Amino acid sequence: MSLLFALAAAPLGFMLASLILGRRAPHLIWIAAPVMLALAVLVALGASAGATGGPLGGWDAPLGIVLEADGLAAALILASAVTAAITGLFALARFGPAGRETTRRYTFWPLFYGLWAALNAVFISRDLFNLYVALELLSLCAVALAAFGSRKAAMHYLMVALAGSLAYLLGVVLIFASVGTLDIGLIAQRAGDARTPVLIGAALMSAGLLAKTALFPLHGWLPPAHGAAPPVVSALLSALVVKASFFILLRIWFEALPALAGPDMAQAFGVLGAGAVLYGSVLALRQQGLKALIAYSTVAQLGYLFFVFPLAGAGGAVTPWAAGAWGAMGFQLSAHMLAKAGLFLAAGIIIHALGSGTIRDMAGAGRALPVTVLAFGLCAISLMGLPPSGGFMAKYLMLIAALESGAWPYAAVIIAGGLLAAAYLFRPIARFMSGTDTPALQARVHWALPLAPLALGLCALTLGVLSAGPYELMVTGLPQAGEAGLDEVEPGP
Amino acid sequence: MEALTDRSVLYALTGAGLIALGFYGFIVRRALIHRLIAFNVIGSGIFLLFGGAAYFGGGVDPVPQALIITGIVVALALTAFAAALGVRLAQDGDEDDDSDDDAEGGP
Fold this sequence. Notes:
The structure holds two protein chains of two kinds.
Chain A: H1 2-21, H2 29-47, E1 52-55, E2 66-69, H3 71-95, H4 103-124, H5 128-146, H6 151-179, H7 184-190, H8 195-213, H9 222-228, H10 231-256, H11 263-285, H12 290-305, H13 308-312, H14 322-354, H15 365-368, H16 370-384, H17 390-404, H18 408-433, H19 451-465, H20 468-475, H21 480-484
Antiparallel strand pairs in A: 1-2
Helix pairs in contact in A: 1-2, 1-4, 2-3, 3-4, 3-10, 3-14, 3-19, 3-20, 4-5, 4-10, 5-6, 5-10, 6-8, 6-9, 7-10, 8-10, 9-10, 9-12, 10-12, 10-14, 11-12, 11-18, 12-14, 12-18, 14-16, 14-17, 14-19, 14-20, 16-18, 16-19, 17-18, 17-19
Chain B: H1 2-5, H2 7-28, H3 32-54, E1 55-56, E2 59-60, H4 62-92, H5 99-105
Antiparallel strand pairs in B: 1-2
């Protein structure tokens, strides 16, 4: 219990400390990274035995707030802690203590820790309003960080975030007005009594969350905001922030309202996801800039996540493939976190060293920056879904679930998405390897920098090689509906 | 008429009216300041709806009132941040005034 509290409180403490420390704030990451990783490992160990947690301050729901980490939450806390820790260490290069003092060097660190705290709070909250506050803190930090790149894109992002949070809040109010509680467990018991208002509320919340997750066709804000930001920020936004709102969608439809989620709704999510995979991949294929390509790839990879709704959900009967689809979604979430952050960091090094962001100008980068390009390749392997990576586990499990459940259109989209991912990622990789001469570097790259994306890429691969442990963790404490199919679960007494 | 004399219904209807008004403004207006005001009008409508939901026959449920205060703080923070971002956008445009200094150190 106190462990979960520390998971959200510790980064908030680091946030305040980094404000006080000022110029020495960057050094804090050397303490924060091990502390947060240790906390995440402890939570994962605790959750592997079953969901851990309890009411905050001894006040039970409905008056108090319950914090709980189930298997999936613990796995995501660990994956995001690894991603954030490595990205934070990498950020020392740009926002570190060396060099001239600028506003951004000062503001980056509090925003970084605030983002981390909000993310952990989303993963462990089991109260709709608590989730709202965590999501708002996350959006606020994310938009402020996105403004490091393009203020115009950040403003667009902010408007989407504002509209999304209003829709979410209105949904929360409607659900509270009809069932009189905000605790996810209690809503699951009471939702059957007031179907229509609860459904309207849930639809509003979902619409807001879909906009924040940037699901096709609400993805318009994402590529400019993620593509223009500094690489460290892009890595945080693309790898971590968009996952939080998706996670809340899971909580709503699989845990709070499993009985209300019909097959039509699940199919609608699945179709939008398929649209995201195809549309995002095709647009990624057409990008000239390396970071824009990676940003569009995020749009595509987020689409896979939504296949969990039709595959683990609306089967009607108890489905043996639901757990597989659930695990696939967990792998996709964590593997994409690691691989996408690594890809952005590697791209950042390449762009910084070569002085150009266009793929065409990057010929021979493989000879000038071998370790960085190796890291880029490792992360790309996971994103394409080639074995033995975490991305492969995600797509393999998802493909099996799709074929077993007879949803062959999803299987076709998964295969097509994999091929398209290979196509758009081979474009820059082929460019890095082309030519015969070594390009002159515009800027010196510290030897330790490429180790960050390399470590992330290796983690993404390890996730696939040692997949049994993570899989067990992700399906422990699986919401009953995930195992049984959304329609099967009757509202409790 | 009896429904209108019930206070919670009155609150709910007023809240819904405010939300509709704000939503119209948020969609139709392009200027940032208009959209921010629209955002706050919608927010007020939602809070009124929430407050109305707290009101039942025997008395007032304190939970929504506590949540409304939190919600107002969140809305205030978002409004302030959006206004600050809008001012910077209007002053400097979309230029990165200090990104060159940042980039000296590393990617």
